[in-house]
Amino acid sequence: MVAKIKKEWCFNIKGDILSGIVVALALIPEAIAFSIIAGVDPMVGLYASFTMAVVIAFAGGRPGMISAATGAMALLMVPLVRDYGLEYLFAATLLTGVIQILFGVFKVARVMKFIPRAVMIGFVNALAILIFMAQVPHFIGISNLTYVFVAITLMIVYIVPRFFKAIPAPLIAIIVLTAVTLFSGVELRTVGDLGTITQTLPTFLIPNVPFTFETLAIIFPYAISLAIVGLLESLLTASIVDDMTGTESNKNQEARGQGIANIVTGFFGGMAGCAMIGQSVINVKSGGRGRLSTLIAGVFLMFLIIVLGDLVVQIPMPVLVGIMIMVSIGTFDWSSFMYLRKAPKTDAVVMLATVSIVVATHDLSKGVIAGVILSAIFFVAKISSIKVTKRSEGEQIIFDVEGQLFFASVDGFVDAFDFTSENQKIVIDFSTAHVWDDSAVGAIDKVVMKCRENQNAVIIKNLNAASKKLVDKLAIFNDSNAKLSSH
Fold it and tell me: What's the CATH number of domain 387-484, 3.30.980.10, 3.30.465.10, 1.10.287.110, 3.30.750.24?
């Protein structure tokens, strides 16, 4: 236990504290913006970001990953808040947490292995594009001075680390440029322009909704959507942070942790949240590695709101925009341009489709699901080609079957046979084939029956163990005229 605590909490104290502070500062405008998207008070998003970060620091399966209110989740809440109100959102958040815990208990994280690399690359690139697009309204067409501050922020972020690494460059940019703004009196948009921050702690509450099946019927569709989208985004983010840090994480524990965090959030007046790729990248790039960085992000966020709220609202938006642009540049997989040239065309199409759908819908889950389905279709098309070769050996006509026989290849299998032979001994050799499903067995039945119509004797030969077991169970041809052999 002591060794585990040291490994996850105490091995990088300075880096985790400093990176957590940077993340907390960057969380504020994001949380406020996502609250506005969802149609709720800005404090709902800020409370969610505080409780999610603090709870996931202890309960999550990926140290150093940041969870908070997110845009993908906020979009799903809009109809619920509009039609039923804030209390129903809190109830849906609680149910979201319960569902995610069940997902973790039943080890749903294993589905991650079904997400192809092309989809992962598309997910990361789409996220980078969305992060950049979200910054555009905050600096395009505002003022020339806004462009100057964004440019200076980027210069600090990229140049300072070459000479000084004791303090994260984004934190230096925020402190220095906020001070310049305050003392010079220049006119710039600030965090306070996004919404009002109330300097109060969240309080425990039970959602003021009727505890009836009618309420459950209302919130369940939203809760299951929030649970799936939140978990998908969290697990993908965990995989990305795994790659960035060269470490492993417990995905099932992360699923349970997300659920626990959302339950706590629902009881403290917050909206459902999940892992944030942008903030997680900021954390890692600022030196955060352990659970302490996530805890500091949540605690310092609330410290900023309660103690330094009047100062926080004066942070210039161009500075935070510059930091998020840095995140988008760092998140984008620039090697994917080479990937498009070298990868199989189907993988390139999947990657581009994932990016396009995510950017068009602003919904990460839709792009990932579409990418997985498209990959599956391409895979099925690739392996559905089956080859049947006819040859004669003495008095026998032998059909050698090569490939995977399943629902997508049965037509080609049946069409490859010559049914004009009469009174012959026909052998169908499956030495280099595999029978996968009921459709395949049905196709074998069809071939055997057609051959028998012309008084042919049919032998099925060299099925592997799994194929033979399936054929034995489902086939109807195995009688005196059609013999099944495993040799």
Answer: 3.30.750.24
